[in-house]
Amino acid sequence: MKHPVYLDYAATTPLDARVLASMQPYLTAVYGNPSSLHYFGQAARRAVMRAREQTAALIGASPAEVFFTSGGTESDNWALRSLAEGRRKKGCRHIVTSAVEHPAVRETCRDLAAHGYTLTELPVDAEGRITLSDVEAALQTDTALVSIMTANNEVGTLQPIAEIGALLEERGILFHTDAVQAAGHIPLDVEKLHVDALSLSAHKFCGPKGVGVLYVRHPAEMTPLLCGGAQERDLRAGTENVAGIAGCGCAAEIARAEMGEEDAKLRAFTEQLRDDLSRIEGLRFYGASEERLAGILNFGIRGAAQDALLIRLDLAGFAVSAGSACSAGAAHPSHVLRAMGCSSEEARTAIRVSLGRFTHEDDVKAFADAVCVIAAELN
Fold it and tell me: Might you give the EC number(s) for this enzyme (predicted)?
């Protein structure tokens, strides 16, 4: 390979040059604090306001319902802890989530369970999907909150969020979705999804790291996760990351405009990759074949340990992963694949390939060829 090929877009994405250009003024000349009343502060404040409008448009929300955070993990924590606490005061202490959530949701729900809440983790099928009937069966008279991810970060499977949201809205139960992996890649409309809260992160759609977003249908029901100043309408203290927020807004606007074209390209690439890899003996794909994000493909090869395969691919010039970057280095196999019915042995062979905006067709073909050669050697 003449250059290393990045195929780990589900972990993070390259910063789009247009996004970098939108951020540069706020890293240099426009350096005021958005809370200041003078010219410099107000110029920064206008950038935050514009980014809020751009980000809201990506998910069909009102700007007044959009709050900026430090990332998806903070957004998830804030939503779950605040909404759960609000309902606890009304006697509701039961939380429902799924067995395949990102650690930001999974560990937060388990922490709440350790502090007086009860928790139900819903099972998934072999493709990683939950069923509406399982959600309905899990609901109790004291269910406070349900949190189900929009798209899985390891296998790309999409969940029936709109159907779940409609059910919960009818029952008067709050609904949060972690849309970090989905936002900017598939159309999202908070009204059609019937969600009360939605989390996203700019670095997953070619924006900057360190900027997250939390949509909240009823901001008046929220309490701050961080105490301090009056930023974000008294709900999220701390001087705003103006450059990062401006970049988030620009990235959201680009994603909204180019999502359809990008999805079609990535879907064609992954289908070709699937076809090319299918000729490898002992290879198995994980996740949904239809209801999935276009750019994610998770597979394992019988007898080929993921560490050995990852190292060989890295030496060959291809950057892929074993799953969630937030769980990298963990000694245990993927909780997502285990929940899908895979044995520990199977889960330890799986790798995730994720394509994105700057992926080229010839790189995908070269990757498939490299996997075929390496698999033959490892077996």
Answer: 2.8.1.7
Among candidate residues 92, 326, 342, 372, the one labeled active-site is: 326
Mean pLDDT for 302-306 is 92
pLDDT for residue 30 is more than 60:
yes
Residue-wise burial string across 57-95, b where 16 or more C-beta atoms lie within 10 A, e elsewhere:
bbbebeeebbbbbbbbbbbbbbbbbbbbbbbbeeebbbb
Specify whether domain 5-13+259-377 bears CATH 3.40.50.720. no
| Assigned CATH topology for domain 17-255 | Aspartate Aminotransferase; domain 2 (3.40.640)
Residue ranges, CATH 3.90.1150.10, the chain: 5-13+259-377
pLDDT in tens, 43-52: 999 999 999 9
Q: State the pLDDT at residue 316.
A: 96
To the query of whether residue 326 is one of the catalytic residues in this protein, the response is yes
Residue 55 has pLDDT above 90, yes or no: yes
Distance, in Å, from the CA atom of 35 to the CA atom of 319, rounded to the nearest integer, reads 42
